[in-house]
Amino acid sequence: MFIDDKPLASLDVQEYRRKLALVSQETVLYQGTIRDNLLLGLAKASSVSDEDITTACRQANIHDFIVSLPDGYHTNCGPRGTALSGGQRQRIAIARALLRKPEVLLLDEATSALDAENETLVREALERAGEGRTIVAAAHHVQTMKAADRVVLIERGGVAEQGPFTDLIEKKGPFLEFLRDETLGLSP
Predict the structure, then answer these.
(1) Do residues 48 and 39 touch, judged by C-beta distance below 8 A?
(2) Is residue 48 one of the residues assigned to a domain?
(3) What letter would DSSP give residue 33?
(4) pLDDT digits (tens, 9 = 90+) for 133-177
């Protein structure tokens, strides 16, 4: 694997980690304000401007919701973010990742636990977040796969098949079989 035409193994671990941001399936927010949670883990949080925060939140499709709250960005999230819905927590996690200005955004089933409305909002946020960066998404949702430039089916630790979604369907190979096995509603 290469990043910026350099073998991954040759990169300094810290340099490599600065290029990545992760949005996991289980969003982790902590007791504190939305702003605190957005800045969590940033090496130079004090140098992040309000404009940077607003931009990341707009990209993540959460800014309008935040400013509609009585305390805005100073709203307390509650223990483990329980004052917010799953979709709101997920969009805050996307904004937190975007504040790191990653070259590569890693998504681990980022829309799997959401209702349809929040899934749409998160999907729109991810489309905006993908501009100018690479997104690697572990996903089982057909909509996520359809939106990808390339789908890679991993089986037994190796690449079983890869390519654009429609090409993989037309090939009627391992990917189509995977979709059938996962009972995602695709007909042969």
Answers:
(1) yes
(2) yes
(3) B
(4) 888 888 877 878 888 889 999 998 899 999 999 999 999 999 998
Three-state DSSP at 41 gives coil
Q: Looking at the whole model, is its pTM more than 0.85?
A: no
- Residue 10 forms part of a structural domain: yes
Tell me if 83 is assigned to some domain. Answer: yes
Q: pLDDT tens digit string along 57-80?
A: 998 889 999 999 999 999 999 998
Query: For the chain, what is the domain count?
Result: 1
Bridge pairing between strands 104-108 and 20-23: parallel
6-7/2-3 β-pairing:
antiparallel
Whether residue 158 lies inside any domain: the answer is no
Residue 54 neighbours by CB under 8 Å, 6+ apart: 63
Residue (of 72, 149, 144, 132) closest to 98 by Cα position = 132
User: For 101-136, how does the pLDDT look when each residue is reduced to its tens digit (9 = 90+)?
Assistant: 898 889 888 777 677 777 777 778 777 777 788 888
Strands (E), the chain: 2-3, 6-7, 20-23, 104-108, 134-138, 151-155, 158-163
Task: Specify the CATH number for the domain of residue 86.
Answer: 3.40.50.300
